[in-house]
Amino acid sequence: xxxxxxxxxxxxxxxxxxxxxxxxxxxxxxxxxxxxxxxxxxxxxxxxxxxxxxxxxxxxxxxxxxxxxxxxxxxxxxxxxxxxxxxxxxxxxxxxxxxxxxxxxxxxxxxxxxxxxxxxxxxxxxxxxxxxxxxxxxxxxxxxxxxxxxxxxxxxxxxxxxxxxxxxxxxxxxxxxxxxxxxxxxxxxxxxxxxxxxxxxxxxxxxxxxxxxxxxxxxxxxxxxxxxxxxxxxxxxxxxxxxxxxxxxxxxxxxxxxxxxxxxxxxxxxxxxxxxxxxxxxxxxxxxxxxxxxxxxxxxxxxxxxxxxxxxxxxxxxxxxxxxxxxxxxxxxxxxxxxxxxxxxxxxxxxxxxxxxxxxxxxxxxxxxxxxxxxxxxxxxxxxxxxxxxxxxxxxxxxxxxxxxxxxxxxxxxxxxxxxxxxxx
Amino acid sequence: xxxxxxxxxxxxxxxxxxxxxxxxxxxxxxxxxxxxxxxxxxxxxxxxxxxxxxxxxxxxxxxxxxxxxxxxxxxxxxxxxxxxxxxxxxxxxxxxxxxxxxxxxxxxxxxxxxxxxxxxxxxxxxxxxxxxxxxxxxxxxxxxxxxxxxxxxxxxxxxxxxxxxxxxxxxxxxxxxxxxxxxxxxxxxxxxxxxxxxxxxxxxxxxxxxx
Lengths: 425, 211
Description:
heterodimer; A: mainly alpha; Cytochrome Bc1 Complex, Chain D, domain 2; two-stranded antiparallel ribbon; globular; B: four-stranded antiparallel β-sheet
């Protein structure tokens, strides 16, 4: 009798394993369909984190082929658990481009896409996640927070996050992740931007597990468990209110502080504006799959055909003296941004180079943009001059547009219309 | 005598026709009058087009909306989200959308109505939905917008607080009823590899159903 039960149990286990495995195999094509529909724009066709949008995002999208994940409840160097991945998809990663998918995808779809992204990295077949045991923690108190501040100094958190926690430590000007992509050090006073959440437990987990692929290490060896909980309580305590919870005086004070920051560091402000206004979207040549051609960010050469007017390759905005803005005066740069007039006096069309909108920038913001552009390393890329359509074709095009009522297409071409000479020293 | 008169009339007619043709060519050449309007005038029109926020009673919301206005105005959302009148963009219908159609590899998009109209604009979207498009280019049905069509990847570099300011400002605009079509999935590009925009004087919005 006992033997029968045992055989039945073994048989059931085997059957269940087979069933589970086949469900997994079935899940994969479904997971791939979900992936292809929603994830490719950022994470790329093959999951290498190189989708068309990836070059414009900070931080860069995850490369699923490496098996490295920032937000985990598992040991340093270990793979994330399935639940870690599901949670990251469900709630998104705050302070990044990754949205919360729980309002859009079903639980099944999320589970299947997680299975699919795991299949993109050989690590998941080779190893298994090592979950950490999380203790009850230390409730927040003024004592714990004070101790946490001591730990903050002892572990030199300020080197990256700044002594005030605002993410402006000495080393952050050239912050990069393991694949040499730009990164920001977290501003610890803005808890709504913490990628993995802002509870003391979330924060403790980041100290404990580290954030794989970034300069944020695990402190499991450098600090005791109690110290990490105190530190988490301290970080929670320095969080400020977001603007959507502020009263009028607080809003005014916040904006005054942001303006003061911008004045103190105009290059950083300029870099932000160039990214946020999307200057780099047009002034960078893209490949066939709409990704930045490596090494040519802001080097111009994206060809814009504006019918019936002509061909207008975008300008090289790097500080290269021969092919970029290196020899342009500040006023010449500002004139093209706000009036659309090139150095030789050529007037540009009011669109897509929307100088009329840029002319509403405050003078200090214009200065900041120019100051930043001066710091962009020179890249030689000789961009041809605009080529206007010959008169008869131009008039015929205008006739079609104005009399026949056809809107002619404006086309943005992939590839580099310029002649690159590579980076200069 | 009569033949002389006929000759004069003939030449007069020829000159008139030639002048008319030249006039028509000059008209075609100069319309739209991009290069007859000074760049400063374009800038002034743009600054005047963005509605001010002085009528917001709550001082905190007013300050936030003012920052949002600056971002919306300087970024040039109106460059795409304009509504075309007969003679180019109608700047009085600020951000009512429909001025251009973009053909991208996965879908064809028409610039949307960003005013708070409840049926055709952002009035039918929650705050989360609007912020998600600005942060991640992801619509409520899960469609991810081509980042070269709508540059949300650039706007993802705004801070979350600045995105909120943009939202507050957009919510404050005058609602304009102007339906813009949903994205049409599929590739309608005619020049292989390129992204195409149809842009001129047409309104790509949905015409109101006849009453």
